[in-house]
Amino acid sequence: MSNNEFKQTERNRVRRLAKRGSYDRETVYAILDANYLCHLGFAVDGQPYVIPTLYGRVGDVIYVHGSNVSRMLGQAAGRSRLCLTVTTVDDLVLARSAFTIRINYRSAVVFGTGEAVSDDSEKMDALKAISDSVLKGRWEDARLPNQKELDVTTVVRITIEEASAKARTGMPIDDAEDMDLPIWAGLVPVENGIRRAGRGHAAFARNRTAGLSRLNRYQIIGSSDETLDRNRRQFNHG
Questions:
Q1: With contact defined as beta carbons under 8 Å apart, do 167 and 106 qualify?
Q2: For residue 192, what pLDDT is reported?
Q3: pLDDT value, residue 205
Q4: Nearest partner of 135 among 224, 199, 217, 53, judged by Cα
Q5: Spacing of C-alpha 27 from chain mean position
Q6: Whose CA is closest to 216, among 194, 237, 189, 231?
Q7: Which helix (H) or strand (E) holds 227?
Q8: pTM for the whole thing?
Q9: Is residue 225 predicted with pLDDT exceeding 80?
Q10: 79 in the Ramachandran plot: left (φ > 0), alpha (ψ -120 to 50) or beta?
């Protein structure tokens, strides 16, 4: 194992369809960096909980944040063992049989220990990382957190100890006896991005022109026509 890979352990080993798994750091980090919403798993008195929350990554650290009264953050900040998952769905994979409907996806599972961030400077860096994860460039446009806001915010540092990635790509896999059924099969692309700004999106901007200018310069992410081309090339039933 090189420094570019996470060590395989009982916690992070991909068991089901292991050939789809990866322990490569850059693969895991690319999946994390392409998203902003994770699901954070923790346990309180033996009862497991999984809560969606925003996050940001800086090197081998993931930051999450929220209110000081958050049960999730209170538990996570106390050096609890945590599991964080992220998934991007790229396509709905529609086979001719309902039994073989799938999705094309990229996912990462991260294990680490939570610790509260007490230093205001690191808090600000963490909040910027989360803001950049949600929308790159928004931190520079917005008013930055003041001391009162920092004081009522809990930021938790999760150092990545173990991680793995898993992905599926490709077309549907139908049974031979289903191939001649008069049923369309193929990929339905799933958009994972920001819809282009329209006039209504700047309703809360005092200066409508400035508001639209800022909205339109944010990166717009969307699927290309590649998936539709693959459908047209490989599937003609319908």
A1: yes
A2: 77
A3: 47
A4: 217
A5: 13
A6: 194
A7: helix 226-234
A8: 0.82
A9: no
A10: left
For the stretch 82-139, pLDDT in tens is 999 999 999 999 999 999 999 999 999 999 999 999 999 999 999 999 999 999 999 9
- The amino acid that residue 193 corresponds to is G
d(CA 155, CA 137): 21
Start-to-end CA span in the chain (Å) = 48
Average the pLDDT over 64-81 and give the result. 93
Burial class of residue 209 (count of CB atoms within 10 Å of its CB; 0-12, 13-18, 19+): exposed
**3-class DSSP assignment, residue 94:** strand
Distance of alpha carbon 130 from alpha carbon 161, whole angstroms: 20
Give tens-digit pLDDT for 44-58.
999 999 999 999 999
Main-chain phi, psi angles of 175, to 5 degrees: -65, 150
SS3 for 144-164, per residue? CCCHHHHHCEEEEEEEEEEEE
